[in-house]
Amino acid sequence: MVIVAILTAMVLGAGAFAKAIAYRKRAQAQLQQIDSAIVEYKIKNGSIPKNGGLTIITNYLPMGFLYSNNLPLDPWNEPYQYTNNGDAYILLSKGPDMATGDSTNSADDIELRK
């Protein structure tokens, strides 16, 4: 009985680890797609969207990416964060802890800087 419990714990632990990796990869892929839409938006409009302006890029996202005309949530059901720094920007998923750090991003955040 003890062996079964140990094996079950090992399988469940491995499953949770695989799920965490899959979530990170999905968030990274979605950030790349959002980034591509921002680049296309900039080419057509001459500038990147203003802060909080990710909804304006929905027409530039690939078919099937949107869910009911809204940007998808990250794998942890949180909205992706977008910060415009003039000509540069940051796309961010808060990651599994669903929080960002005080002055810097927490270690589990998934970030794309351009």
How would you describe this protein?
There is one protein chain. With 114 residues, this protein is of the alpha+beta class. It has a single domain, classed as Glycoprotein, Type 4 Pilin. 39% of the residues lie in helices and 13% in strands. The protein has one helix and three strands, in the order H-E-E-E. It has a three-stranded antiparallel β-sheet with strand order 1-2-3, covered by helices on one side.
Domain module count: 1
List how many beta strands DSSP finds. Answer: 3
What value does the Rg take, in angstroms? Answer: 18 Å
Order of helices and strands: HEEE
Assign the CATH topology. Glycoprotein, Type 4 Pilin
Give the oligomer, counting copies of the same chain as homo and different chains as hetero: single chain
* Major pleated sheet: 3 strands, antiparallel
Strand order of the largest sheet: 1-2-3
Low-confidence stretches: none
Topology diagram in text:
Layout: H1 2-45, E1 81-85, E2 88-93, E3 110-113
Antiparallel strand pairs: 1-2, 2-3
Concise account of the structure shown:
The protein is of the alpha+beta class and 114 residues long. It contains 1 helix and 3 strands.
